[in-house]
Amino acid sequence: MTPWLHGHLDDAKQLHQAKQYREALKSLLIVLSVYPDSPEASSLAADVIYEGGRKNLPHALTSTELGDPRLDSIFCSCEAGGCGASWVSFGQCWISSAFGQVEISNPSGVRCTGCGGYFCRNHYTVAATFPTQRIQCPRCGGETDAAPRTPNGRSPRQTSRPNHPLVHVYLCVESRKRIGAKYVQSVLTSVAPDALLATDGERVGITSNEFFPWPEDPKQLMMMKLMMDNRDFLGDRYAVYYFPGTGPDSKRFLLAKIYSSVAKYFDPDAVS
User: Fold this and answer.
1) For the segment 188-219, what is each residue's pLDDT rounded down to a tens digit?
2) Which of 20, 76, 120, 263 sees the fewest Cβ atoms within 10 Å?
3) What is each CA distance from 194 to 71, 178, 200, in whole angstroms?
């Protein structure tokens, strides 16, 4: 473990102990940008989310913070058809390593020790057995683990965030009429909040356009728009990521996020 990584993890631990969950998560997200598979950062992030995501806290983590795609691999997600619920298991948390077998009542979700399926409390089955209750797998009826240590990940809530500075965002919407700033903000808040909450000196440009009728290949039209506005965006100094979606009023849209090709965060102590 490098001094840089060790320092960020120590900062996150201290912030977590002080119940400064948002600041702790920010420090861990920097680590996960550089080391997305870090078990130490993932376990600490699970701790922060497990405690800081509770709705009864005065400064609970928001859905925007919890939806960060760098956290997707930390979550467990329900495999019941059409559910989509996700949670962080206590078994993943840093503090849980101090315990042996963990018993949790009314868990957010479980993992079947037989078929390996994950199910949230809306879909697992509770069997009344004296003197305790037993949670059964709704798929195979097998025994379950209420604190699985290995998550199965979740589907992305937001557009991806590569470890590069975000430079510009283009939003093209299926509409006859001019879309306003409130509409743009609502879409970006939902799927690309990093465009609105720039950090570390980033200045993100935002451009919106309307397409009607919606083209068969909106990506090609978007590329033409980028070429007309700033040809450099399609060059080697930048990377463009495209994300199709549907807005709050069911209008189709295409989002293009332009990133600089340089690294945003890096470990100065890593061996090259």
Assistant:
1) 999 999 999 866 667 899 999 999 999 999 99
2) 263
3) 14, 24, 12
